[in-house]
Protein: Adenosine deaminase
Amino acid sequence: MHVTPTCDEIVKAPKALLHDHLDGGLRPATIVELAAEIGHELPATDPRELGEWFVSAADSGSLERYLETFSHTVAVMQTAPALRRVARECALDLAADGVVYAEVRYAPEQHLTGGLTLPEVVEAVLAGFAEGSEQAAAAGTPIRIGTLLTAMRHAARSMEIAELSTAYRDAGVVGFDIAGAEAGYPPTRHLDAFEYLQRENFHFTIHAGEAFGLPSIWQALQWCGADRLGHGVRIVDDIEPGTGALGRLAGYVRDKRVPLELCPSSNVQTGAAASIVEHPIGLLRDLRFRVTVNTDNRLMSGTSMSREMALLVEAFGWGWVELQWFTINAMKSAFIPFDERLTIINEVIKPAYAKLL
Ligand SMILES: O=c1[nH]cnc2c1ncn2[C@@H]1O[C@H](CO)[C@@H](O)[C@H]1O
Ligand SMILES: [Zn+2]
Structure:
């Protein structure tokens, strides 16, 4: 029997999230308070209006303009207490939404204008995640958070950020990423950082195939050695419409089970997909790529992990079978050790979905 999951049920079901930006998920009320403390001017000072401003400003159809909205969130994240607070609230918000495992990313190099050093930034965020996770567990909604450190692809600090990632690998940093405007900044600009990470047996994902197509995905995998693709949605350009025949690159991605960190609402906002119903996630799931569902930026998309799943249920008629599949796909693709992934799958995810299926 096919049961349509309701929004409330989706919130309660355990979910795993691999692609969420710390500076894209602040509570509007927190931005207002932190901005007032430092005298940063915002486009609106009423939290509700500010939340709406972020969504409409990010609704631009262009990744470059979408990214401009981050100037306001990054501006209020320049001190250790502010970073710690934002990270603590992020853990609490994800946990309250039923996320049991999350990898949250941010770019330490963007948080130095208040005089912090790179290690101080990392330590403030890790302390915030630890505090938030502790509070969430006490509230009966346990969550495990792994941090990914991002280097900005237009900048030249990727090697330094890669080294920072491995320095904190035993303290909660589980991977590395590059983000920012894609066109004109191929991942191969950062080859030395990726080669270093491979020599260190570390994990990394690369934003690729969002605003730019197949060459970016090909470089991320075949030159840089990415474990996963941030978005990767443009892999559909290598699939023949109608027949579903896979080109060489799409075949490789599917055969190797390369995880795709798909972010439906974000893609509609940046113009990478026309609408949720037309989002390639439908095709990619039918063809059994290693698809995962993600939020990208909860603030800019006015979304949550549960909302992304509810939108997919509505658009594609999916039920618990698909939601469990996405969740297990994400957990299998996580950057924490295999035994810890299995424990979450077998002790948290499967028993909960068994009651829903
Ligand atoms: O979807 C995206 N594509 C590319 N870059 C992004 C996306 N979302 C956020 N960022 C960039 O990543 C930085 C660190 O978190 C953000 O400041 C933003 O510039
Ligand atoms: Zn992203």
Summary: The two ends are 9 Å apart (CA to CA). The chain has a mean pLDDT of 97. Residues 118-138 form the longest helix (21 residues). The CA atoms of residues 73 and 171 lie 25 Å apart.
